[in-house]
Give the backbone structure.
Amino acid sequence: MDDRIASTLAYHARTKHQLDRYAAGPGSLDWEAQPDPFRHWRGTQVTPLPREILATDILWPLLDQPRPAQAFTPACLGSLLRLCAGLTAWKQYGGSRWSLRAHPSSGNLHPTETWLIASGVPGLEDGLFHYQARDHSLERRAWGDATAPGVWFGYSSIPWREAWKYGERAFRYCQLDMGHVLAALAYAAALHGWQARLLALDPEETAARLGTDRDADFNGVEAEEAEVIVTLQADAGAPPTWNHWAGQPSLLDVKPMYEWPVIEEVAAATRGPLPPAPPAPAHAAKPVATTSTLPATQVILQRRSAQAFDGKSLMPHAVFRSLLAALLPGGSPVWRLWPRAPRVHPILLVHRVEGLKPGLYALPRSETALAGLKQAMPQMFAWTPADPELPLLQLLAAKTERTARTLSCHQDIASHSAVTFAFIAEFAAPIADNPAAWRHLHWEAGMLGHCLTLEAEAAGWRGTGIGCFFDDAVHEVLGLGDTKYQVVYHFAVGIPVDDARLTTLPAYE
Ligand SMILES: Cc1cc2nc3c(=O)[nH]c(=O)nc-3n(C[C@H](O)[C@H](O)[C@H](O)COP(=O)(O)O)c2cc1C
């Protein structure tokens, strides 16, 4: 077996949480010593971005309708960046203060760095800019010779931010977060009349465009792992190359206590091109109507993860169906950013949904997935159609709360929700074909989570990503005996119970 495939599979296997043993991580944590969630590029020219949010008049159900693209201006880019990567609030409790962003992040550690590449935007010099979420500004990192006008977004991960807390499993969380971030961009771009598309560059090209391969610049500070570059124009090619660089990245953790070398190994093993994608589909009618009447920008800015659910609210059937519809091709702008054949499929542990028997359900996101899952999962499941329009099938009628809680590292959010999802990825075959698929499967799962988080918020419900689950225990419940399919993410939706002790402060004064 190719070394890269073997390393990827070995990493996945050794970072499973088992019922009797968690994946290797730090023995203890000093929260005061958390790596800085904001990297600053010293010695760069800083440009504050306009803070006004545009497109505030678009209601959530209309978010994905075609609309004229807004011209690339600092005002428009400022609005877009706030909606996909900006701060949405500061929280305070006692002497602690922390910020939240437009997308959720495992442990609120925010490993993803956002880069803007701009060429020919009036009022903005050309170049590569680091987006500084703390004060909503741009730090100009590089520039080059004049090129065709365009706007691109680039992403890199700083694995140490996650590894500080989660040890070896951290690289999974970086990739799940990446999926949430890409989905957040797809929604924000759609609101401004643009469509976000991933560029299939070689990993070396992506790293060179984002400067993450400039090892000397990162000497003594935490490395960044280039992930992907996204274009907002249908006809754009690769972004420009640079011949002038500026700035030094700040150190995020002055005293790292552990080392997890396997993260560098899996990062190297999973560097690879995106699989070819068919042309992005045109706007498709959403399979099921959304009932929300909130402005889309409000949904995005007020989005939060529930820290606890009430354990009793019954989810209306219409809300449940709008959640599922968002996960299917055509159900969200995210699936035009990721137009590839679906490879990650939700299994649902339904606790409290109006008109639906509690139990285990499957939502295969394609016809071929249904056949594959049916073959892989044991005969005892019924596979009874459970919706006239959506590909929802009932596997088993049963009380699922205890199982969901146990499988999700004994977290109450998985049982006090109305429904908890386990995202099952087609695993061994795509990775054998291209080990980079390991990242992409986690992105796809993160994107599914993001669709749920926003759709739930729009309907007055709330979601929470669950990165902590007992992998093989999930496989056992589903009868999955090999690595053809693997669970990659859990997600719960319910009615939140807010913590009244926390004070909320505005994102930007
Ligand atoms: C990939 C991922 C995994 C997560 N795992 C858990 C989890 O296991 N348990 C939990 O309570 N919250 C989990 N969360 C939620 C985060 O704690 C939450 O997003 C973060 O604290 C920021 O809060 P916010 O989403 O309200 O902005 C996860 C979020 C993501 C994106």
In short: The radius of gyration is 22 Å.
